[in-house]
Amino acid sequence: xxxxxxxxxxxxxxxxxxxxxxxxxxxxxxxxxxxxxxxxxxxxxxxxxxxxxxxxxxxxxxxxxxxxxxxxxxxxxxxxxxxxxxxxxxxxxxxxxxxxxxxxxxxxxxxxxxxxxxxxxxxxxxxxxxxxxxxxxxxxxxxxxxxxxxxxxxxxxxxxxxxxxxxxxxxxxxxxxxxxxxxxxxxxxxxxxxxxxxxxxxxxxxxxxxxxxxxxxxxxxxxxxxxxxxxxxxxxxxxxxxxxxxxxxxxxxxxxxxxxxxxxxxxxxxxxxxxxxxxxxxxxxxxxxxxxxxxxxxxxxxxxxxxxxxxxxxxxxxxxxxxxxxxxxxxxxxxxxxxxxxxxxxxxxxxxxxxxxxxxxxxxxxxxxxxxxxxxxxxxxxxxxxxxxxxxxxxxxxxxxxxxxxxxxxxxxxxxxxxxxxxxxxxxxxxxxxxxxxxxxxxxxxxxxxxxxxxxxxxxxxxxxxxxxxxxxxxxxxxxxxxxxxxxxxxxxxxxxxxxxxxxxxxxxxxxxxxxxxxxxxxxxxxxxxxxxxxxxxxxxxxxxxxxxxxxxxxxxxxxxxxxxxxxxxxxxxxx
Length: 576
What we know:
Structural class: mainly alpha
Shape: globular
Radius of gyration: 24 Å
Number of domains: 1
Strand order of the largest sheet: 1-2
Number of helices: 22
CATH architecture: Up-down Bundle
Order of helices and strands: HHHHHHHHHHHHHHHEEHHHHHHH
Helix content: over 70%
Largest sheet: 2 strands, antiparallel
Distance between the termini: 56 Å
CATH topology: Sodium/glucose cotransporter
Number of strands: 2
């Protein structure tokens, strides 16, 4: 046994990464070949016959993107208490989606969110606006995923970040184009197993190492294993204040911004087209509810562990590098430094790494996105564990990227070409169009991966804001308010989306600084990540006001809305 462990440790991190990534990629490709799509229904909704367990696992993988796996714990590591908004918003939003939207949309029985918008609001204009919003949300979201792929490849396989993104593009392209939703679904089942195992194994190792408790959720609230009787969080608070940072367990965000970000993430979750479409893949409404419950339980495993990983990583980072001589830093530091995600500038030429809150004297800049990936290395875990985390990060990024690419291709081939441009297109040609659209979408996603607009979770948070501002009001009002008409829905989606876009452009890109100065002064004190809640509210107001002054929907549309809300098995409910 000892000999086996010795030989395992002789294999380096890069070799282990090649082995584990090679095995997992081979698995994904094999599943895609086995489950290739032969019809548009297979391509869009996996034939509508996925079991609740498989769909729950696939939904969890689709949902837990690079932002959840790589970036969320990184944000919490640096934001501390304030990072809780991501936990509350994303998990709460999934409950909202499962209870308020998924069962009714499944009962409606369409392929895509623009499909629902177009038919519910009996308008090609509404469908076009929905296609635009779906593409906007999906491309913004996929930018974060491809950046996550690039980060993992550039560090662990030691290839150029552009090469890493291209490799990821080719893998996703293979199983998304060949298998469509059917291939993606079963690939995501495998990816969930990989990513959750990869996230939990180092968390358990480090929790036991630091506190003697192998359960991370309990470990980060426990006393240290050194016998001092000091609680881990108290130690981190002390380390943070010594360096000039605020206490880790003390929040600094305003209450209104916390509320706005949490709400934007919640309603944005409920409006994400790549998550909603997963509920079209099961046989009936009952299975949609079951798969939502299963997915929520599977998601909770990672989300309750992330705060612990954040604390472990932050504590280990400070103790390992703060005030240490640069010439004696561990090998992992130099490896990450070569990627540009850690930078050290010796401002006072003393050779010591001064990691301080004061920007003028601080010499170390650490990218949020490396904390989960570097955590096992900082804690000196075995090489195979370090490589496992790399495989998990790739699984998380690729699973969500595949789901997003399917939404993009379906929006183009089904909602744009089939429903608007050429309604008489054959199923064979529609399937070809869907695959060509996937290729185009992968190329655009790759461009964003090579030219990333920001760190993963920030980009993803903006995608949630766009989903909140555009889709959520239209879907909610479409299900629960039969008087809502096409004029109100279209006006609301346009106003909400444009408002959110302008705010993003102003406060993230600074394009309007000459016209609208004082970039740091957010409207109402709400950050861009939280402004989706304001844009959503504006969408609701505009939709309802316009609706009051325009004609009612046709009677058949109102009857359809009534039927959607009738429980399964009662009356003549629509159930495709």
